[in-house]
Specification:
The chain is mainly alpha-helical. It has 3 helices and no strands.
């Protein structure tokens, strides 16, 4: 799971360099894998450490009505 933080660090560096160069497009990443392996908690902890706000949207209600 340490690869998640390493990947996020690399992507943050790319985004910051792009911003310095005037690029306004931002890339997103989605980690996939087995449920319960810590993907979300690692990402949330990393974002908190970096001071990066994350926006969460709970789809559980929307999915249950489909």
């Amino acid at each position: 799971m340490k690869n998640i933080k390493k990947t996020l660090d690399e992507l943050l560096e790319i985004a910051l360099q792009a911003r310095i160069n005037g690029v306004k497009k931002w890339e997103n990443v989605r980690f996939e894998g087995l449920t319960g392996t810590g993907k979300t908690s690692i990402t949330e902890q990393w974002a908190e450490e970096k001071g990066i706000p994350l926006i969460s949207y709970d789809l559980s209600q929307a999915v249950s009505t489909i």
